Amino acid sequence: SMSLIRNSLGTYLGESNLTDLFHDWKSSRFVRYAGDEFNARCVHLVVLTDIPFWTSHADELRTWCEDTGCNTHGLTVEIPSDELYTAFCLRWA
């Protein structure tokens, strides 16, 4: 459901506002998925939306994840704590 998607600033995006959802995805480096089914593996699941940015920073992101205990899977990052999500936002926003 679209209502489960949060943008990188933490604002929920409603189902009725699909245009704004895609605008946010195109204008942000990442968005945070706010669903519950990933909580068994991680606290935060981030979808990397700015593909050219992440392609050029892939090695830096991989190193950051190794140093912090986060996991990358394709265009997602699994972040195991609120504190590391804050660190991710400060480092990459």
How would you write the strand order of the largest sheet?
A: 1-2-3-5-4
Taking the alpha carbons of the first and last residues, their distance comes to: 25 Å
Radius of gyration: 13 Å
Number of strands: 5
Beta-strand level of the residues, as a percent range? 15-25%
Low-confidence parts, pLDDT < 50 over ≥5 residues? none
Shape: globular
Number of helical stretches of at least 4 residues? 4
- Provide the helix percentage: 40-55%
SSE sequence, one letter per element = EHEEHHEEH
How would a crystallographer describe the biggest sheet? 5 strands, antiparallel
Structural class of the secondary structure composition? alpha+beta
Summed over residues and divided by their number, the pLDDT gives a mean of 76
Observed structural traits:
93 residues; 4 helices
Task: Give structural notes.
- With 93 residues, this protein is of the alpha+beta class.
- Helix content is 41%, strand content 20%.
- It is built from four helices and five strands.
- The chain has a five-stranded antiparallel sheet, sandwiched between helices.
- The longest helix is centred in the C-terminal third of the chain and has 11 residues, at 58-68.
- It is globular and about 25 Å long.
- The model has no long low-confidence stretch (mean pLDDT 76).
